[in-house]
Fold:
Amino acid sequence: MKRSIAFVLGLFSAFLPLAGSTALAAGVKIGLSLPTQREERWVNDKKVMEAEAKAKGIDLRVQVTDNDASKQVAQCENLISQGVKVLILAPHDASSASVIIDKAVKAGIKVVSYDRLVTDSPHDYYYLSFDNVKVGELQGEYITKRVPKGTYVVLAGSPTDNNAKLFREGAMKFIGPLAQKGDIKIVMDQFVKDWQPAEAQKLMEQALTANQNKIDAVLAPNDGTAGGAIQALAAQGLAGKVPVTGQDAELSGAIRIVQGTQSMTIFKDTRLLGKKAIEMAMALAEGKPIDTQGKVVFNNKKDVPSVLLTPFVVTRENLDAMLIDSGYLKRERVYRK
Ligand code: BGC
Structure:
């Protein structure tokens, strides 16, 4: 009898950790604040996190700000008042979003800065993203190998997005020295408001006009802006003749790579990022610390403990293996007739 009680107790305790965390997960409220749903990239993030939350029984409350910093503050205040335990926050405006962290911390809510770093906050929070300087390095290395000499258009993302600065910083490690040497001439160096493709197109049109179409390479920070720049090139019969970088492995970017008008993209697997975000949020909700193995990113005030996933270059050569075989994009959609 004694033995069987011990056995039952043993069995019970063996399942206890699992039962405990499932019970905790069930119904736990987590807030998610996203900058936009106008880009495929952010549609994917939302889908992944919603599916992951559903599988774990988490009550995920999602808000989309539509690139509006003050709306994001109001929406996050609302999430805070709904009693979320953790806030996953992808800021539209890196610096002004520090107010959101103030409010969350006051309410005892933990924050994961998602994909984009919230800057200038003195509080404790986590950062989950890809290695964004590396993203820029991969773009810069690629384009300077393709075009080691010539006339460059350098586009950067939204000035309100810390990632835009990191991507540019990484890329300029390769472009900068060649520009100093005089091999590369940068005829335009511009941030693109809100990452808008139409804005990138306008800038590219201006650069083409001002330089009598003599542009040899375009550093475009993501697939959206690459698409805008390529439209401007196409209007001059130059699409496919001028190398253009990208990022995000969006379907439209992959199609352009296959068709030869965009040279590369950067694959950041949003499935891994979204999954990791939910995992981190759950750990924080349960009061568990997160081991970032000493990795930090500076937010202008302090080092933020960071989990940074790896980005990969995708070109025509490895697109099938990277994007289709991995199930990220569907073959029939990339190779549509
Ligand atoms: C993300 C990119 C995205 C861009 C525009 C950046 O913060 O890291 O993946 O293309 O925002 O939404």
In short: The radius of gyration is 22 Å. DSSP finds twelve helices and twelve strands in the chain.
